[in-house]
Amino acid sequence: xxxxxxxxxxxxxxxxxxxxxxxxxxxxxxxxxxxxxxxxxxxxxxxxxxxxxxxxxxxxxxxxxxxxxxxxxxxxxxxxxxxxxxxxxxxxxxxxxxxxxxxxxxxxxxxxxxxxxxxxxxxxxxxxxxxxxxxxxxxxxxxxxxxxxxxxxxxxxxxxxxxxxxxxxxxxxxxxxxxxxxxxxxxxxxxxxxxxxxxxxxxxxxxxxxxxxxxxx
Length: 217
Description:
Elements: H1 15-33, H2 40-47, H3 51-57, H4 61-85, H5 90-116, H6 131-148, H7 152-173, H8 180-216
């Protein structure tokens, strides 16, 4: 009796689900093996689809990696916005958002750093600053302006500096020189102290500017 041939059928997915599937396999490949062996062919093989199908959704490897980085950063920004909006006080806001950022750095920092350091993405990294990031910065600046009675411009500056401290803390965490909890406590204390001192300086500068205008009138 001849052996029966069992045909392998490919599951049909909606375009959005198929794109997500491809990105998930690409993310796993980058996380486990880095970018040295990364290719559209390898992603297609791991995802169980044809290379032509991968090219249907992503025009080239740089497009695929950019989409992967953008997706990850957008997710982080959404989580940080939720953490910020749930905070009732300024110290709680700093702690909540710093915790999310450093947890990501601990769990997926190497993955994101590999993408940010990819030469083919150098010109694209600026475009990856998502609308969520802009929304988050504006929201945080609004909270700071109200909390410390400073201008929106000054609040935006302090917000960007605070975010810079968080990024530096994430990079330091990658060295393994301290635990996440230790780095988190130090970072929260530094940001709170720096923002309070910076806001005080902004208010003093504002008063001097107003006094100078009054004297010249």
